[in-house]
């Protein structure tokens, strides 16, 4: 699959390419990743791809926009009505706990799986452990690829505080579960209560404090029981984390970094672009979302001067208001251009597409289609 360097992102070429199997929309929170992912998936389906969009956003607006009452942990088909031959669209929303449960059931026998699922320590880490959501998003992606449910999967990444969390979390969670803490936890059950201090030694208080933070006050015995039950399944857990990481680096994957034309969002986008490059992950380009282009040639200064003349004459107050609004809009546009140009100077190799903001929020399939057309530059 060809990779664009600089210039304009050709969205239609990206989604039409049969070698493109996964598109990952990533970036900081609140920049429109969910809507962008839905628009890409919808456009791909209507151009003939069998597509699934996986969203991590807990809000229900995407389901409503797609004409569904709700989204679940498995793909649900969306009625498009105008897709090309073979084109279908299904949508789903990550259920973090269900995904973790499915992974345990897949790698443990029925008795051991039940022992793990009922353990208080497991019930804590499966819903609130740092990085679990990000890891489970990638676990679900791996499941979808293995099940061959679609020829294109579009992923909306978790709304992390930092864009880098998405890449770090799977390895971080895998490292923690395979690290010193877990080895310490697996020993006490065999050594007995007094043996715990002997094994851990002078670091016991720090160890206990760490465990307390992880399990939220659950007894250490619960943690030890969990580890003993989980030990035989952890190899599969780690292998899947490694396989997913390789999947993200494969030629069939394309990352689209989504950013609003704001300083913080573009700063996060810059960090993400650099991180993707350092990890040799395939970057398709940057989506500068919700821009405000102006197509009139009238400068802000001339617009304000004309408005002042109208106000002085006491005539055409509506025209004066429109002129001032135009001046404000041009000022916003110029500010956005400066910010985007700064990003381009720092990353001239990155292809880009600007997506003008809609007049209102997306609330139906037509709105999603319109975002898709703007992504394609129509």
TrEMBL record:
This is AAA family ATPase. Transmembrane segments: none annotated. The lineage of its organism: Bacteria, Bacillati, Actinomycetota, Actinomycetes, Pseudonocardiales. InterPro entries: ArsA/GET3_ATPase-like, ATPase_ArsA/GET3, P-loop_NTPase. Pfam families: ArsA_ATPase. Residues 20-291 form the ArsA/GET3 Anion-transporting ATPase-like domain. One of its GO terms (molecular function) is ATP binding.
